Amino acid sequence: MAGLGYKQFSAGEILQATELQGYAVDQSVMVFASVAARSSALPSPTEGMMSYLKDTDSVQAFSGSSWQAVGGATVGFEQTFLLMGA
Q1: What is the pTM of this model?
Q2: Which in 9, 35, 53, 65 has the greatest CB count within 10 A?
């Protein structure tokens, strides 16, 4: 499913059911067991989607054509966020 793009939500705004997948889910970090599980659940990802892969402990972002490691390197989840917080 293609996302609706990016939306900045306002405090007190009512989220419509039709917006839940297109905005809220696509603007979150989705968790998957593996690349295979992600590919099965997201056959047509949209640019900017984020995913966490449990089997490799990694965070990736979809560039519009492929999934890329966050930070441009292949490091685990803990290493990525420890470096960001340093």
Answers
A1: 0.58
A2: 53
